[in-house]
Automatic annotation (TrEMBL), chain A:
The chain crosses the membrane at residues 40-60, 81-106, 112-129, 141-159, 183-203, 224-247, 259-280, 316-335, 347-365, 385-404. It comes from Streptomonospora nanhaiensis. InterPro entries: NRAMP_fam. This is Divalent metal cation transporter. It holds the Pfam family Nramp. It comes from the Bacteria. The keyword Membrane applies. Its main location: membrane. It is found in: Membrane. It is a multi-pass membrane protein.
From TrEMBL, chain B:
This is PRC-barrel domain-containing protein.
Automatic annotation (TrEMBL), chain C:
This is Uncharacterized protein. It comes from Streptomonospora nanhaiensis. Residues 1-11 have a biased composition (Polar residues). The lineage of its organism: Bacteria, Bacillati, Actinomycetota, Actinomycetes, Streptosporangiales. Residues 1-21 are annotated as: Disordered.
């Protein structure tokens, strides 16, 4: 029974923790502009995430070290540095986007301008990373993030024509008023939202923080194989809500308030409370994760002491990196740049750097020196290699498409 | 030459360099950034120590960027801090993690220790 | 500290060694050129003006549509005022920015003048209606909200007609 409780908790945390500002914005924008025609991207992204997250979990339980900790060892100082620079800069951009998202959620709740919330947000994120115990932190925002199930409820309440939605989803072509280039650009954005690098970065080090052993592998796998797809379903619910209500109304999502419109229209004040809570939990959790991921990446490259579970004075450089990252993110958002725009750019750049963040995982997970006979099975390797090819294609296409479509117009 | 008693051959590129160094108590020291060889008259050069030093990493990141890295970090290094040198005799095993038979050498990374005492430690909750 | 010179440091510091990366520099220049090309205003032709008008109409329809949905939400008393006001403000700001961007464009031909004569009033009406909505929501004035809603619906159908004629 205790096992069941632990499993349920982990599962719920995985579902609730899956979404962040990138998913909220990307799924909503795509639903409002393209209906369900890009729905196929979500399962593709989720499967990729599942494959690589499971690999990371296996590496952690077999070696007791985080996957990215091993990148420099296995691939050398130069490749490790390239991987670090790309991952760190993108994680920093993502962190800024999440903090902007938290401020926007607070603005929707209070009416107070989001820029005034930004320093508060920066401080709040820091204080949680400084004081709150790791497992407690993860469970809290994971469970609160389940509030976003409200999108599923709203979609169900709208009583959509599921057959029409399904037909749209399998049509594999853009709606008549949108061009192919923009369609593919948003496919890449959506893919970047599903496979954000900081998730795996955080996950692989988080497992070390929680001192996973081989007994925890089964639980981790269950969380990955059930939690992530259910999280993907939530993404599709957000897309569906936008497709059913916003697209016919001609609304193209560009602000966080519009993302919540379907829920508010259908479920009224209660729905509004729940959805804002969900926004806050999702973005706050993601800010915590990306802040930690930034610290993990740098500290593990240089081999410093690292870990949230250590007292801060025992890992000073690690906490310094986190503080500097949070400060940079806060200052960046304070320049007044639109957080939704920052989010969209963070997704495209994440997509462009995906191979650099995921290839090392594949290499490490195949190394018998680290994993012994727990290395990847042939099936896993084939699947992962297919994904790597896909990631390379996405990576090469991302920036040119962004320039060509002027970021999605 | 101190390594394996049975004459195992290994290459520093894979087995030694960039490995995480961990002391007897399991504490992280850093990654092996460079390796020290001693060349005595009449003998072949022998590996004598592991170097943990972010600046010397620059020499291994080739090209202009590597040289730039090395110069900047050398300049930024506080005077009392020297590259950490771990004699090979302290090494128990090289791979997958380089484990030492001793504790961390004292005075390693004084800047980090200073930061722990004066900056991080001063913020409430820093020591818990 | 005497360090043996590694082979990569050997070639004379004065000249470029073959390993000197000119390819990354060229790639960087190419990307910068692309970025600049994307950022500069396109050459004003009737076609590009028309495209800009189409984009303006689409974006305005989005802002106006948001306003219409907010009116319905307010009618059903389905939202707290901070949410409704913030979303209305965002829509108004977006519409204003879109209208300004279009308004500052120079119409290249006489045909474009006609297009501008049709679209500009719609832009102004949309922005004003959204501002009215924002003010009415802040005052919780249901009659004014409904009035703004009527104007928004009218603008929306005007914009939709224009959209059809342009495509």
């Amino acid at each position: 029974m205790r096992w069941l409780a632990a499993f349920t908790l982990g599962l719920l945390t995985a579902i609730g923790g899956f979404l962040d500002i990138g998913d909220l914005v990307a799924n909503s924008v795509v639903g409002s502009r393209f209906g369900m025609t890009l729905a196929w991207v979500v399962p593709v992204g989720v499967v990729g995430l599942m494959v690589f997250t499971e690999m990371s979990a296996r590496v952690v339980t077999a070696t007791g070290r985080g996957t990215f900790d091993l990148v420099r060892e296995r691939l050398g100082a130069r490749v490790g540095l390239a991987n670090l620079l790309a991952s760190y800069l993108i994680t920093l951009l993502t962190l800024s986007a999440q903090m902007g998202g938290i401020a926007l959620a607070l603005e929707l709740a209070s009416g107070i301008h989001y820029l005034l919330w930004v320093p508060v947000v920066g401080f709040l994120v820091w204080i949680v990373l400084w004081r709150l115990p790791f497992a407690y932190m993860e469970k809290t925002y994971g469970l609160l993030g389940l509030a976003l199930v409200v999108f599923g409820v709203a979609l169900w309440r709208m009583g959509p024509d599921l057959g029409a939605l399904f037909t749209e989803a399998v049509s594999f072509s853009p709606p008549p008023n949108e061009g192919a280039a923009v369609w593919w650009y948003y496919a890449i954005t959506l893919f970047g939202a599903a496979m954000t690098p900081y998730t795996v970065l955080f996950f692989s080090s988080g497992g070390v923080e929680e001192k996973w052993t081989s007994e925890d592998l089964a639980t981790a796998r269950l969380n990955v194989f059930f939690g992530l797809p259910l999280g993907g379903l939530l993404s599709l619910a957000i897309m569906g809500c936008a497709a059913v209500l916003l697209m016919p109304a001609g609304v193209q999502v560009s602000d966080l308030g519009q993302v919540a419109l379907p829920v508010v229209s259908t479920l009224g004040r209660l729905g509004l409370i729940v959805v804002i809570l969900g926004f806050f939990a999702a973005t706050f959790g993601a800010a915590l994760e990306s802040g930690l991921a930034a610290g993990y990446g740098v500290a593990q490259y240089f081999g410093w002491h690292w870990g949230k579970t250590l007292p801060p004075a025992s890992a000073p450089y690690f906490h310094l990196v986190i503080m500097v990252s949070l400060l940079s993110g806060t200052l960046f958002v304070l320049t007044g740049v639109d957080p939704i725009t920052v989010t969209e750019y963070s997704l495209v750049f994440s997509a462009a750097a995906l191979p650099l963040t995921y290839l090392p995982i594949l290499v490490v997970a195949n190394d018998r020196g680290y994993l012994g006979d727990q290395v990847n099975s042939r099936f896993t390797n084939i699947l992962a290699s297919v994904y790597l090819v896909l990631l390379c294609v996405v990576s090469v296409a991302a920036i040119p498409l962004m320039l060509y479509t002027k970021a999605g117009q | 030459m101190s390594d394996e008693a049975d004459g195992t051959i290994f290459r520093i590129g894979f087995t030694v360099l960039d490995r995480q160094v961990v002391d007897r108590g399991g504490e992280n020291l850093g990654k092996v950034d460079d390796v020290e060889f001693t060349w005595r008259e009449g003998e072949a050069p022998a590996m004598t120590a592991l170097i943990i030093d972010a600046a010397s990493l620059g020499g291994r990141i080739a090209g202009r960027f590597g040289r730039f890295w090395e110069t900047v970090l050398e300049r930024m290094r506080p005077p009392e801090e020297a590259p950490t040198r771990i004699p090979l005799t302290d090494v128990e095993e090289f791979a997958p993690t380089t484990v030492l038979s001793t504790d961390a050498p004292p005075g390693m990374r004084p800047l980090e220790a200073w930061m722990a005492r004066h900056l991080i430690g001063r913020i409430p909750g820093g020591r818990r | 500290m005497l360090q043996p010179r590694s082979p990569s440091q050997e070639p004379g510091r004065t000249g470029r060694s073959p390993a000197q990366p000119t390819a990354p520099v060229l790639a960087l220049v190419a990307v910068l050129l692309l970025l600049v090309a994307g950022c500069t205003a396109p050459t004003p032709t009737a076609g590009s003006y028309r495209d800009a008008a189409e984009q303006t109409v689409t974006d305005l329809l989005s802002a106006v549509g948001t306003g219409v949905l907010l009116v319905e939400i307010h009618r059903g008393d389905r939202a707290f005022s901070p949410y409704a006001e913030t979303t209305a403000e965002d829509a108004e700001d977006a519409a204003r920015s879109i209208a300004d961007t279009f308004g500052t464009r120079q119409p290249p031909t006489a045909g474009s003048d006609a297009l501008r004569a049709e679209l500009s009033p719609l832009c102004d009406t949309a922005v004003n209606a959204l501002a009215d909505l924002r003010i009415a929501l802040k005052r919780d004035d249901s009659a004014a909200v409904e009035a703004a809603g009527r104007t928004l619906r009218a603008v929306s159908s005007g914009l939709s007609d224009l959209e059809e004629s342009l495509s």
